[in-house]
Amino acid sequence: MVPGSPSEPRSTPSSDRDTDMLAKQLDRLGMDDELGKIVREGLARLPDKEQAKAASDLTFALDSLAPAIAHLEELNAALKTAERIGPTVLVKGVITASEDLTIEGQVEGKIELAGNVVTVGASGRIRAQVSAKSIVILGEVTGNVTASDKVEIGHDGSLDGDIASPRIAIAEGAHFRGNVDMPRSPARAAFLKTTSGVGSDPAAKTNRQDVATESNEG
């Protein structure tokens, strides 16, 4: 290829400056080298007068995305750092995990830990539907909770929402307002079915009651 021929990708000082700014932004956002290479090669194929504008537009777009990318990185780090959402963290959306989780921060949305324990710490503020093996509430929860094993509300805990669980423990001083649904545990239901010799046992039906209680210490 002859230097300066029309088919040769060229650049101007202005486009070089914008391309450098774009490269720095790609690096700052943690974009891998391969993606940066693709972007630079694409810019190089543009006509000279379009390179600077394209690089500037891409830099502006990445600047706009930077806060969202940073938030996602912080959220991902918080969820990966094991088992704990700290008091300064706000999560909006769905949380799923295959390990026990302690929440000291704020969650809005839905929490699903089918085989594990969710503990809402004293500083935890939850506005979400919670589903887990066991749920321990030491902070504040607004939303329905479902546990396959047990729901426990500590003495400073607060729950405004319905409970569905075969076992429930509410400490003195706790606040709870909602409905209670206490189905038989699978093991208990199987035992009753075996001993009764019938396909269904009226005594095994769900126990349900409406509860509004707030214990006062002292």
Which tags fit this structure?
elongated; six-stranded parallel beta barrel; alpha/beta; 218 residues; disordered N terminus; 33% helix; 4 helices; 2 domains
Give your account of this protein's structure.
This protein is an alpha/beta fold and 218 residues long. It folds into two domains: 13-78; 84-214, no CATH class. The chain is built from four helices and twelve strands. The protein has helices spanning 13-28, 33-44, 48-80, 186-196, and strands spanning 84-85, 90-96, 101-103, 106-120, 125-137, 140-142, 145-153, 158-160, 163-164, 168-170, 175-182, 207-214. Strands 5-6-8-11-9-7 form a six-stranded parallel beta barrel. It is elongated and about 75 Å long.
Question: Layout of SSEs?
Answer:
Layout: H1 13-28, H2 33-44, H3 48-80, E1 84-85, E2 90-96, E3 101-103, E4 106-120, E5 125-137, E6 140-142, E7 145-153, E8 158-160, E9 163-164, E10 168-170, E11 175-182, H4 186-196, E12 207-214
Parallel strand pairs: 1-3, 2-4, 3-4, 4-5, 5-6, 5-7, 6-8, 7-9, 7-10, 8-11, 9-11
Antiparallel strand pairs: 11-12
Helix pairs in contact: 1-2, 1-3
Question: Nutshell version of this structure?
Answer:
This protein is 33% helix and 35% strand. The chain is an alpha/beta fold and 218 residues long.
